[in-house]
Amino acid sequence: MSGARGRYLALMSRPSYRLTALASALALGLSLSAAGTLPASAAAAAAPRHTSTKPRRPKTPPPPEISLAPGVGGAPGVPITMAPVGLSVEYPVMAAALGPEACPPAALVAQLRLLGSPPISLAGVSQDATAPSGALAQPPQSWEAATLYSLPASFWTQLHCLLSQAADPLTVGLNLRSGGLAWAQQMVASAQSAATNGLDFSLGNEPDLYYLPNYASLDKPQPDEDALAVSLYLQLASSLQPALGGAPLIGPELALPGQWQGELAHVIETLHEQTVGVHMYPLTACGSPRAVTINGLLSRSAANAPHRLAWVVADANAAGVPAIISEANSASCGGVAGVSDSPAAAVWAVRFVLSALDTGFREVRFHFSGNSYDPFIVRGGEVQTRPLESALVALNQWLAPGATLHTIAGVRGLVANSIVASSGTTAFVILENESATARPVVLANAQSVHVQSLSAARAGLREAQLSATHGRIKLVIPANSLLALSP
């Protein structure tokens, strides 16, 4: 071996030189073996040079950048005209929460104040099965009467005490299926004695599911079945309207609004609804609970479900009245434990409410039925919260009436919205990562930012204060999570 060749091989055996040589070789289009020495064929001066067959990795694009300068907007804003989140509570659930004392537990009052004193509806399936206190004969005169729920004698005075302290507006659902005018008059008078911060009424719950004796037994639905259901509902509702004395009316509380799409405008006009209220659940646990999954709840379809009811908003706008989703939650029929009471439910709730507002609905009321999807429960005078509760608290903080909600387009890999206060300054920027992988983002024009986060991986609203370096803040948003940034 010649001296020059020996010195060359000795140099190539050093690790640092192998790395330098590898880089140089790749730059020149040569390939190196695993040992780091030139292949024998490459040593020949006449041998052709070969380019590397290893594919080059695509260059990673820079993370998206969002400016947090004052007045960050985007598309024309959606005005926020009422509390974006309310509560829809079954009568027996409310009666149990009020407890045995003359006034409700202090923890319940504190919870409602924390939520921003949102509107409370006494509604749901129990609405059409509730009788005023003392109205039922004892013993019951029929099987149907035996299945009805009789309000406790202290219910309305306890409710008055609650509303006096918590200042929530009240919606009272009247029994349309098994009640009559006398019951409605008694309930209206009691409700008026209890309400302290606004009162309206709803006539019946989900009338599109009412039993039609002439058609329910037939194998095939009749072409005029929906028209008959609408006619039945209007007849029953009109019989109770004298009890209201001109009080505002909300409804018609449809379970499946699409079935009455051609009739809703007529219902609104006939009953002079002051607010159009319909129900929506993105998932259903009524058939098989196994169909309700965390992945399904976090899907874009579940988040954007309100868009399917844009026509309801259009009918309400044509009548000059607001539309709300007056009953909603993660999955119908009470939800599913492990999904409806998981942190994923909080992430879904924020996405769902933002979608509802973007569609034109003014508010979403979350249902309490004594099941796994209830945002909180009251036991022994104490409030036990579930992950969904943190989303409702956050939403009523972020989306203050008087502000406007704007969509920020062009933020790659993220859904971005800004909430601009009535003063014209940006109150919050909400960034949603709907994917199963983390997403980076850079915040510009912000020296300091307050961050609140909700994640499908952990319960609770987390908070942090971040400072900028050279006017920029780099963040990584975890999978299936969202941040609310307050500059």
Could you characterize the architecture of this molecule?
The chain has an eight-stranded parallel beta barrel, surrounded by five helices. The N terminus is likely disordered. The protein is built from 15 helices and 24 strands. The protein has 487 residues and is an alpha/beta fold. It folds into three domains: 29 residues, no CATH class; 93 residues, Sandwich (Immunoglobulin-like); 319 residues, TIM Barrel, CATH 3.20.20. 30% of the residues lie in helices and 24% in strands.
Helix/strand/pairing category: alpha/beta
Mean pLDDT across every amino acid position: 86
**What's the Cα radius of gyration?**
31 Å
The CATH class of the largest domain: Alpha Beta
Q: Any idea how many domains?
A: 3
| Name given to the CATH homologous superfamily of the largest domain | Glycosidases
* Percentage of residues in strands: 15-25%
Task: Briefly note the CATH topology name of the largest domain.
Answer: TIM Barrel
Helix % is 25-40%
How many β-strands, per DSSP?
Answer: 24
Low-confidence stretches: 1-51, 214-218
Largest sheet: 8 strands, parallel, barrel
CATH architecture label name of the largest domain? Alpha-Beta Barrel
**Strand order in space, largest sheet:** 3-4-7-8-9-10-12-14
Distance between the termini: 71 Å
Shape: globular
Number of separate helices: 15
